Amino acid sequence: MLEIGEKAVPYEIATSLETALELAKRVGYQVNAHPRLSLGGHRSGFADDHKKLIDFVTSVSAHSSKLELIIDKSHNGWKKIAYEVVRDQYDNCIVVCSMENIDPLSLRTGESIVVAPSQTLSSDEYNLLRSVSIKVVRYLCIVGTCNVQFALNPLCIEYYIIKVTSGLSCSSTFVSKATGYPLGYITAKLALGMSLVTLKNSITNQTCAWFEPSLYYVTIKVPKLEIKNFIRGSDGSEISIKSTSEIISIGKSFEEAFQQALRMIHEDVTGFDPFPRTVTDDELITPTDKRVFALATALRQGYTIERLFELTKINRWFLHKFSSIIQFIINHSDASTIKDRSLLLEAKRLGFSDKQIAMYCSSSEPEVRASREGFDIRPFVKQIDTVPAEWPVHMNYLYLTYHGDNNDVQPITIEATSIFVFGPVFYRINKMSSIDEDFRLITILDLISDLQRQSFILDNDTQRQIVQIILKLLNNTNEEVQNQAIKCLSLLVYKIKEEQIRIICQTLCSNCTNVSTVTKQLRYISNFGLKAVIESLITNGLDSKAHILKEIMNYFINDILNEELERATDLNIIIFMLTKTIKNKNIYCEFHQKLKEIILKLLYSNKKNINALCNILSNNIPCYSKFSCDCGDLEEKNENVTQRLPDPLLFDSTTTPAT
Fold first, then answer.
1. Mind telling me which InterPro entries this protein's record contains (predicted)?
2. Collapsing DSSP states into helix, strand and coil, what is residue 236?
3. Which of 126, 166, 479, 546 is least surrounded by CB atoms within 10 angstroms?
4. What Å distances lie between residue 313 and 20, 203, 272, 298, CA to CA?
């Protein structure tokens, strides 16, 4: 960085306790210390004095055969700012988004609440760091996306480059969702040598990808810290990875997006709510997964903005936003709030949920909702538009807000129109794994009811999870659960992608023919399941799914030809498929020769099945004269070959043999 005139945080490497103490004394406390090779900041920390550094080095030494510690000057309390930059091999560069951590520099981004775009930077600060981030990426000749992180002094324009991450990272995921800019897709294309100028902007589908999104909304990412899942884990977030997932929310105002994000952390959290007890200064100084609620409590207790800034070093802008939420709670915690339209609208714009308002106004959630709807206070549907008023937006990426007076996209009331329903499905996936048989059955019935709705659509990951669980339920000991699982599979065919349909068919085919490892009951239920899936594939559109039906037919034909003994299940499925789809000559033209081989091979072993097979083929495909002649030749060998045998045992109760 020195070669381009930029400042990076100076550091030195210590290989022993003595070296570490000497370097810390030279740099000056407080210092950062972390192993040279660490994943996600593992075993990283701070040392305020000589004693704490000794304890830290001793702890790291106990878990490493070779001690290599990076010691650098700590800039705790400084702002942590990041820029996501994209560059192609032709040196075209854009800044997709800027991000700002609410917590000061002491915390790793993964454990801090992050806001996009940055909220507290002045115009000079923003443009300075933007220019530096582009300068760094060009100097390093990075192609694709890159995340550049800065430590910024809140008192003056002084900064250090603290980290440069090339390629996709956790921050890239957040930026993609915050802006709608497909960083993964763009990075892959740039790696193939394409230019930002030639790639299309996915938001407009008209302009090129060489544009910088403009965010007229606020996106907030909140880490979900499950400290209890870590052995010997303390409540302190420190700077190592402890978050297990992240929550992202979008709103027109910071308060709205912030409270919405907090509600998604846990089902018991209703928003930025104070504890019912008092808090101490230590709870505010130490960053934990509960400090944000300690801040709410402190504001309600009467802590001033200046006092909280001294304790937490959180920027005053954020503290004022927190204070506005708590002040509304203090001033309007009575029943009259839900009777006043302006107060109710203000509450919704501050991010309060109906349940939260009811809690503070000694009312009930249905009463608050009824009052709100009586005042015609409803959220507006807004579209992620990063090129406002310049080009029409074609990307269906939406969010709800109470800030506004019109919808960007008009709600559709027609039931036949598909919408994305995802909330209850994730809940039911877990329920279907319950050890309680009745609970499992009820959940499957609920899912069947949802699958029958035209407006019910599943995303890719949910499709995969549901398919896995339903296939597993076929092996259940409860016959009713098995029957409902089969019905689920037949309905899923209309809702899932071809990849998942193939997984279902392959699993069922394998279960039907695997005599050695699959139980007789599972083979039996898989037989019915496969027939139900085939029926749905045919109903869904034979031409579009013909290749899958061909794969199923080929599987069973080859299984018969490769086995010494005849498999009644194989032949039964083949006859079923022929009965259902024989009129479509394109599907079975390529199987005529193999079907003839099956008839010749099994001529005297299973007369009923073979006769039914010949009967269907010879009577439904008269245009294939050669095959009809072959059937005539067989008639000389066995007088019963073409005899009509509409045996109901060979078919489902709903199936009529071809005549």
1. ARM-like, ARM-type_fold, ATP-grasp, CarbamoylP_synth_lsu_oligo_sf, CPAse_ATP-bd, CPSase_dom, CPSase_lsu_oligo
2. strand
3. 479
4. 27, 38, 19, 15
- How far, in Å, CA of 103 to CA of 290, rounded? 13
Q: Looking at residue 47, what DSSP letter applies?
A: E
Instruction: Please answer whether residues 350 and 403 qualify as being in contact, where contact means their C-beta atoms are separated by less than 8 angstroms.
Output: no
Residue showing tokens 């978050």 = 243
Q: Among residues 100, 148, 80, which one has the least CA distance to residue 321?
A: 100
**pTM score:** 0.65
Same structural domain, 104 and 215: yes
Tell me the residue range of the domain where 489 lies.
418-534
217 and 94 both lie in a single domain = yes
Structure tokens at 377: 């206070």
Do 120 and 141 lie in one domain? The reply is yes
What are the per-10-residue average pLDDT scores of the chain (659 residues)? 81 83 81 68 69 82 75 83 94 94 73 90 94 94 94 90 88 87 89 91 74 88 63 44 72 94 87 91 85 93 94 93 95 90 94 93 92 93 72 74 86 56 48 52 68 70 81 80 82 83 87 78 84 81 70 77 60 68 59 68 58 59 41 42 33 36
Q: Of the residues 514, 534, 554, which one is the last residue of a structural domain?
A: 534
Phi-psi region at 5: left, alpha or beta (left = phi > 0; alpha = psi -120 to 50): left
* 503 and 523 both lie in a single domain: yes
Distance (Å, whole) CA 653 – CA 659: 17
Tell whether 87 and 196 lie within a shared domain.
yes
Backbone angles phi, psi at 235, to 5 degrees: -75, -15
Give the domain-ending residue among 73, 97, 118. 73
Number of domains in the chain: 4
Judge contact between 302 and 289, C-beta under 8 A. no
Q: Is the peptide bond before 379 cis (omega within 30 degrees of 0)?
A: no
The encoded tokens of residue 417 equal 């129109």
Dmax (CA) of the chain: 104
